[in-house]
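Lecture notes, unit on protein representations.

Consider one protein chain, 349 amino acids long.
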Amino acid sequence: MEDFPVSTVEMVCLGTSMALSGLFFYIYRKKRKTVDKLNEAPRLPLDGKLADILNSTPGKCLQYVVIEGAVQPVGEPLRSQFQEGTVGVVQKLVLKEHKLVWNGLARTWTDSERILHERVSSVPFDLVGADRAAVRVLCPLEASGLDAEIVHEKFHQASYGFTDIIGQYLSGEKPKGQLETEEMVKVGAALTGVGELILDADRTLKLRPPTDGSTFFLSPAGYEAVRLEQEGQATLWRALASLCALAGAGVLLWAARRHYRRLRAEREQDRLRREFKRMAAGEEDDDDDDDGAEPPANACIICMSEPRSCVLLDCGHVCCCYSCFQALPHPTCPVCRQPIRRVVPLYQS
């Protein structure tokens, strides 16, 4: 694994970035598909002709359409527990606990919340349009974008004594209080539904979640707001996928740059090694011509037998042969102990 150009840390970073990029791209493709289906979905007027359109359609079903109408309950509506006279078809009661938790890392108190109780109720309701034409909405709690109106919100402040304060500092938690909210989809509110429209045997129009897995929408904001919101989410996920992919490409480029620099350094070392070998071969020929010659005057200060054959840079000392330079345990000059940046051969005439 020494010749592999990517280190373990880089492999982890690369794998993480590619996994996140794939996940974000998958979410983006789902959002993009939803946006495309919203753009292609026909916006049908809710009037008396809608039943005739469905009756002439094969299977009496339109897979993905946009319907807008006013909310009307089928039977008795839900009544608000806190606002007298307020009625609706979907009701959500939430009780949240708010407290401060000590963060030992940041050395400060941070806000925290926890849902103590949550209850969601609904009754059958229709979307009513012109000519009193109505479409029954099925499975409204499965719809996306059903933002109910807050009809009641009250914060109950926590009260505690001296012993409670001591216990809070010991436990690292300070209760702030409880937030009580009630949300409702009111009767008469305008609602936009996007889903599968069918005509029942009793000529009742029904809007339900699409059987092909497409997103079912019920939104008080309107069709254009739903479409723009989905486009914004698709753009966000695409940007996140692109950033993760760029991060992975950056890791690969960094590894390739490091590997290239290592190969270049190895080629430079090989070149120097061959050059020093040629110099050593020439010196051996001279020694063969003069077998009785004494050791060179400029002998290597390490082995004391070979001539000094290299210049150590940046200090510039000429003190050893290339074989002893390669044998140095640390790349520091034997004379001045400065780091050796590079080495060049010494040519002697």
